Amino acid sequence: MLQTVESYRAVDSEIADIVLCKLRRHLWYLSEDLAGLALFSDHVCAAEKRAMIASLKKPQQKSDLQRVDPQAVDCFQSKALSDFVTERSHNLFAAVRIDTDFLKDDPDTWHDNSAYCNAKGIVSGLCVVNDCAERAVKLATDYNMSLTHDDTERQLWNTIASW
């Protein structure tokens, strides 16, 4: 998507810059650890998955991607998903206890592979949340609920708190 938006600059640079600014705010999610999730996407072609599997053998180095620099959007024009994968990407499989036996097979055959189907089920069941924001909302909600259980009084407390 970043590559497409970057290319859109030739059509309308103002809109492209606004969209890129919004996308930059979410680049902190992209890391070597999470790049392996793309292996389970039906939108990623088998050739790219093969390249990602090959990259899993690439040793991590100091220059490898741990978190994307939001100002480095332009570098995405020449990047593929496999560029973000290193041996560090195995951390994902270990963290969610995924059997990686399916990586030995060709991605074109994965839909018949029970290890892949189980792994895809695990990945599909992962809940994605912004922990900091979720915790803050939960804390505020719990605090508000502890003040009163009456909706009228709760609205009063919310009004007072906003002053």
Structural summary, described in words:
The structure is a single chain. The chain is mainly alpha-helical and 163 residues long. It folds into 2 domains: 2-124, no CATH class; 131-162, no CATH class. It contains 8 helices and no strands. The protein has helices at 2-8, 13-24, 32-35, 46-55, 90-95, 114-124, 131-147, 151-162. The protein is extended and about 60 Å long. It starts with a helix and ends with a helix. The model has no long low-confidence stretch (mean pLDDT 81).
| First and last CA, distance | 42 Å
Order of helices and strands: HHHHHHHH
Q: Structural class, judged by helices and strands?
A: mainly alpha
**Mean of pLDDT:** 81
Total number of domains: 2
Shape: extended
> Percent range for helical residues?
40-55%
The count of strands amounts to 0
What are its keywords?
48% helix; 2 domains; single chain; 163 residues; extended; mainly alpha; 0% strand
Question: Summarize this, please?
Answer:
The protein is mostly helical and 163 residues long.
Fold blueprint:
Layout: H1 2-8, H2 13-24, H3 32-35, H4 46-55, H5 90-95, H6 114-124, H7 131-147, H8 151-162
Helix pairs in contact: 1-2
